[in-house]
Design goal:
The protein is mostly helical. It has a domain at 14-105. 69% of the residues lie in helices and 0% in strands. The protein has helices at residues 10-31, 38-152, 177-195, 231-258, 260-281, 298-319, 336-343. The longest helix is centred in the N-terminal third of the chain and has 115 residues, at 38-152. The radius of gyration is 62 Å and the shape is rod-shaped. The protein starts with 9 loop residues before the first helix and ends with a helix.
C-alpha cells in the first residue's frame, strides 16, 4: 500500500467537496436567523448563494468529466469490438487458407502414395522377372552342363553291335550247344575246385578298417537298339528340334535381361568348359579286354561300367562348380529413404 493512502481514501476524496459546499450553505442559512441587522443578513445570503453556485458549477464540471470518461470508454469499447471482429475475420480467412492448403497437400500426398505404390509394384514385377530370368538361366546352364556330360561320355543310345558269329553264339546272338557245353564244363571245374581241401591259411595281422564309401552307380544299360521302321531317328530329330527352339527362346529372354555381350561371353565360357570336360573324360574310357568265350557277356558290362565311371567323373568335375546368378545384375536401385522423406 502506498504511503498516505489511508489518510486520503478515494470515497472521502470524492465526498469532501460536495460536503463542504453543503455545510457552508446550511451554516449560513442557519446563521441568517440569529442577527437582526440587515447587512449581516445580506452577507450571509450572499455567502449562501456563492456556495450554491460553486457547488452547481463543481457538479456540472464533474458531470461533464464523467460524460467524457463514459464516451471515451464507449469509444474504446467500440474500437476493441472492431479490432476483435477484424481479428476474428483474419483468423477465419487464415483458417480457410489453411484448409485449402491442407486439401492441396492431401492431394499431393495421395498422388505420391499412388506413385510410390506403382513404383513398388514395378519393383516387385522387376524382381519377379529377374528371378524368372535367373531361374531360366540356371536351367539353361544346367541343361548345357548335362549336355556336356552326355557329349563327354560315350553314346549309350547308339545300337549295340552284336558279337561276331562263333561256336558259342549265332548271328542273332543266341548261345549255341557248344556254348552251353563250355559253360557246363566251367561250372563243373568251379565245383571241383571248391571240393578240394585247402591248406590252413596263414595267420594275418588285422588291418585297419577303411572308411565307408557309398557305392558307385553304374550307367544304365540300354536294351534293344535296332530300329525296324526308322521311327527312333525321326523322334530323335523332332526332340532335338524342339530342344533347339526352347533354347533359342530362353537365349532371347536371357539376352533381354542380361544383354547380348554378357550372353555371348557366357556361351563362349560354357563351350570352353564343355570342351575341356570332354577332353578330360574321353581318355578315361578303357578299351574292352579280350575275354574267353564262356564269359562273353562280361565285355559289354565292363564297357558300360567304364562309360558310367567316365560320366560320373565328368559330372563330378562339373558339379563342383558354382554358378553365379548375379554376375550381370542391372536392376536399377531405388532410394526408398528419399521417397519416405518426401512423403513425410
Amino acid at each position: 500500500m502506498p504511503r498516505g493512502r489511508h489518510r486520503n481514501p478515494e470515497p472521502l476524496h470524492r465526498l469532501l467537496t460536495p460536503s463542504a459546499v453543503a455545510g457552508v450553505s446550511v451554516t449560513t442559512a442557519v446563521a441568517a436567523w440569529l442577527p437582526a441587522e440587515t447587512l449581516t443578513l445580506r452577507l450571509l445570503v450572499a455567502v449562501t448563494a456563492a456556495a450554491g453556485i460553486t457547488g452547481a458549477v463543481l457538479m456540472r464540471s464533474w458531470d461533464r468529466a464523467a460524460g467524457r470518461r463514459v464516451s471515451e470508454l464507449a469509444r474504446d469499447r467500440v474500437k476493441d469490438e472492431w479490432r476483435t471482429e477484424e481479428r476474428i475475420a483474419e483468423l477465419e480467412s487464415d483458417l480457410e487458407e489453411a484448409r485449402v492448403l491442407r486439401a492441396k497437400l492431401d492431394a499431393k500426398l495421395r498422388a505420391k502414395r499412388v506413385e510410390l505404390a506403382g513404383l513398388r509394384s514395378e519393383h516387385a514385377a522387376l524382381l519377379r522377372r529377374y528371378a524368372t530370368a535367373e531361374t531360366e538361366r540356371a536351367s539353361a546352364l544346367e541343361g548345357r552342363r548335362l549336355l556336356a556330360i552326355e557329349a563327354a561320355s560315350p553314346s549309350s543310345s547308339a545300337p549295340r553291335e552284336l558279337p561276331p558269329v562263333s561256336e558259342e553264339r549265332t548271328a542273332a546272338g543266341a548261345p549255341t550247344p557248344v556254348g552251353y557245353a563250355r559253360a557246363n564244363a566251367a561250372l563243373a571245374a568251379l565245383a571241383r575246385r571248391g571240393d578240394r581241401p585247402s591248406a590252413a591259411p596263414a595267420r594275418r595281422l588285422a588291418a585297419t578298417v577303411a572308411p565307408y564309401t557309398p557305392p558307385r552307380r553304374s550307367a544304365a544299360r540300354v536294351e534293344g537298339g535296332f530300329d525296324f521302321f526308322g521311327t527312333q531317328a525321326a523322334a530323335g530329330t523332332a526332340a532335338s528340334q524342339a530342344r533347339a527352339a526352347i533354347e533359342a527362346v530362353q537365349h532371347e529372354d536371357l539376352a533381354d535381361v542380361v544383354g547380348e555381350e554378357a550372353l555371348a561371353a557366357h556361351k563362349a565360357e560354357s563351350t570352353a568348359r564343355a570342351t575341356r570336360a570332354g577332353r578330360a573324360a574321353l581318355p578315361a574310357v578303357p578299351a574292352a579286354p579280350a575275354v574267353p568265350a564262356p564269359a562273353g557277356d562280361s565285355a559289354p558290362e565292363a564297357a558300360d561300367a567304364a562309360a558310367g565311371e567316365a560320366g560320373e567323373a565328368g559330372e563330378a568335375g562339373d558339379a563342383g562348380q558354382v554358378i553365379d546368378l548375379t554376375a550381370h545384375d542391372e536392376t536399377e536401385p531405388i532410394d526408398v529413404a528419399r521417397l519416405r522423406t518426401a512423403i513425410s
